[in-house]
Amino acid sequence: MGRPMQFETDTAVDRAMDLFWRQGYAGTTPQELASELGIGKGSLYNTFESKHALFMRALRRYSKVRIEYLAGMFSAPGPIGPRLKRAMTVLAGVGEHRRGCVMVNAAAELGTADDDVNRIAEDLFTRIETEFRQAIAQGQESGEFSMDRAADTAASQLLASVIGLSVLVKAGGPSERFQAVIDGIVDGL
Asked: The whole model's pTM is what?
C-alpha cells in the first residue's frame, strides 16, 4: 500500500499555476514543479500524471476562479460601470503584477501547438465575454449605459481590450496609463 498523500491537491494546483504563470509552460521543469509543491518528482507524476496534465488542471482552475470572481462582481448591487472597470483591471493584472493573464500567456505560448490549451482558453474567453455582455445589458437596462451599441458587440470589445491590456501589462508601463484606457472604454459605454 502506498503512502497517503501529504498535500492538498487544490493548493498544489494553485502553486503550480503560480509557477507556470511566472515562468511559462516551457520555462518550468518537472523538478521545479516538484520543489514548488514540496513533493518528490515521483509524487508529482503519481498525482498529476504529467507536467502537461498539471498545466491543464492549473488552467481549468484559473478559469473557474476567474468566472466565479466575475459572477460575484456582477451580481453585487450598485452601478455596473465601476464594477466593470474593476473587473477589467483585475483580469488584465493592472497595478497588481507584470505577469499579464495566465490564459493569454498560455494561448500565446502554446496555442498554435496545443489544442487542449486552445479549448480551455476559448472556453474562458467565451465565458468572460458572456459575463461582460450580461453586465453591459444590465447597465443598459438601468440607463447607466447607452443603448447605441449592442451589448454583444461591446462585450467582444471589452474582452479584446482585456486581452490586449494583459499583454501590455506584461511588457511593462505605467499602471495609470492602462487604468485610463479602462476608464475610457467603460465610460464610452
From this structure: 0.89
